[in-house]
Amino acid sequence: MNNLSDLQQLLSVPKDIVITTHRNPDGDAIGSTLALSHYLRTHGHTTHMMAPSEYPDFLEWMPGAEEFLIHDIEPEECDRLIQRADMIFCLDFNSLERIDKMGEAIAATDSTRVMIDHHLYPDEFCDFMMSDISASSTCEMVFDFIGMMQDKDRIDKTIAEAMLTGILTDTGSFKYATSPKLFRIVAELTEAGADDYKLQDLIFNALSEKSLRLLGHCLANRMEILPEYKTGIIWLTKEDYEDFDIKRGETEGIVNYLLKMKGIKVAAFIHEQPKITKMSLRSKGDFSVQEIASKHFRGGGHKNASGGASFIGLGNTIRKFKNLLPEYAEQLAEL
């Protein structure tokens, strides 16, 4: 964090603070925002949490989640709060393009901006930046931020469980991006009252019957394996979305099932939307799907977890992805 003492000085008196996160917020986005909001309120700050679009239903249990303002639903209220804010925290994203119209509102203000994020290639649009691509999650970084503020004693059960939720979801329940430091943090969070068993159950055992049937459809009818490239693909059409009445968040995690197969090192989930085709990419080991997403699909993210999009339709997007794989054949063969 640059100029930490200056930020501490700004936060030494109560402020009107907006905390923002990215479109289609996941567990890390919601968890980090809630944890920071709860923490800042212990210092007397007024906080308003907002995201461009709605969060998935499986996070509704989180204390304070009902306070989230959604820009797609309440744009005028969100913009009003952004315009009057003394400070704006930007969590789990590092470019205003990630938050669409909400980013335009933030760009137009003179508010002090603070970024806490762990994605590659941050834009320099904030006054204070805390960027660490080695971190497992933004929740891990919020824990570090509270520590830098010398305030770990303010981490209660609610704050600890919000942070642990983001850590669990972004690491896939400790499968990815782990480190000795992370497990020490988790130990401190459980000591602060976080119930890891309860959280695992709420997060990973919350599928509806419809979601389970959708997963079965994906694995039985929408999966293609390319063993020569150690790659698996799952796709969904617009008709699939209608047939299963798929809502936001209900396809979360489907891409990861491909990596459960022995020998598969790269996974792609490609799904057709009304005006755009989106994709989620995952990989194991030293293979960067971030490079594929950023170079070919207008996206980005992490080395082993990235996303992108195209405007050429589902079939053409699948073909484009498959046609790229020979370029990486030698690298994939070494995995």
Descriptors:
335 residues, alpha/beta, inorganic pyrophosphatase (n-terminal core), Diaminopimelate Epimerase, Chain A, domain 1, 2 domains, 13 helices, 12 strands
Written account of the structure:
This protein is of the alpha/beta class and 335 residues long. The protein folds into two domains: 4-204, inorganic pyrophosphatase (n-terminal core) (Alpha-Beta Complex), CATH 3.90.1640.10; 209-333, Diaminopimelate Epimerase, Chain A, domain 1, CATH 3.10.310.30. 39% of the residues lie in helices and 18% in strands. It contains 13 helices and twelve strands. Strands 3-2-1-4-5-6 form a six-stranded parallel β-sheet, sandwiched between helices. It starts with a helix and ends with a helix. The model has no long low-confidence stretch (mean pLDDT 95).
How far apart are the termini?
35 Å
Structural class: alpha/beta
What does the largest sheet look like?
A: 6 strands, parallel
Give the CATH architecture of the largest domain: Alpha-Beta Complex
Give the total of domains: 2
The number of helical elements comes to 13
Concise overview:
By secondary structure, the chain is α/β, with parallel strands linked by helices. Strands 3-2-1-4-5-6 form a six-stranded parallel sheet, sandwiched between helices. The protein has a six-stranded mixed sheet with strand order 7-8-9-10-12-11. The chain is 39% helix and 18% strand.
